[in-house]
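Reopening this ticket.

The earlier resolution said the output was attached, but the attachment link was broken on my side. Pasting everything inline this time so it's all in one place.
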Amino acid sequence: MEALTIESTPAQGINPVRGAVQQYPILSFIALACLFGWLFYPLAYFGIGSNPGNFPIGPIIAALIVAACQGRPQLRAWGRRLRNWRASWKWYLVALLAPIAIHITNVLVNHAFGAPLPTSAQWAGAPAALATIPVLLVLIGIGEEAAWTAFVAPILLRRHGFVVAWLLASALRIFWHLPLMLDGNLPWVMGILGNAAFTMVLLQVLVATRGGWQLAAVWHASLNAFGSGFFFPLVTGRDNARLGILLAVAYALLAAVVYFRKQPDPAAVRGDVTLASLRYREKNKRPSPGGEGRFLW
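Inline output:
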């Protein structure tokens, strides 16, 4: 997992805005992610468009701006991470099929509570849902996970232990989804519990694959393609609400299993990024002003 070396003090004579972004990269990121991600809501308020939702590429735009403000080495490091899609085909298979398997399991459990099963005519729409994954991979998978998993997560994992990094990453992801919860497009249990558990799963994948952020992107795309794009529209009312609760609970159980089965070694989590930081500082012959132990929001 390659590091994003964050300068903790701005250089002399630098633009004050850029200096603030350099000193507080995470706060700057979430502020910009919300600025771009929530753009459609004020536009709808003024009569431009209707039924607003979060702009999925808002986070990657925010990450791009913050990384650029950190300097060219940091921007190039993030770019190299985004271009690296190397991973075992087994991991890609897991990222693609695990979300679908969870959805199908939830549908069966929901049926046990009285919800109807998909008809044969409805199942015929499954290939169409599968065909949407490449589009969702670009808009939601890359648009969001290039920021949450490829940009924010390495910084948090470098500065904190795994649990603290997960708590902070979950809080950021949940906060960004807040408008969807407030307007009723995302149930609160899915927005809070579901996002927190989902973040745990993706961080575990990131650590297990030594930086395989692209697997988070594939997982997210598959999750949405067969969730909001297929299974959820097939039921309404209480059955639909129950399906959302089941999805949040399923990811919470999965998160607990993957965490307690094999807790990540803090040295292993931070080892690669720390070594990368040391190599970068040695190459450029200058120490990190803030020190390894200090974290600035």
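Reporter confirms the inline version is readable. The chain has 15 helices and no strands. Residues 86-284 form one domain.
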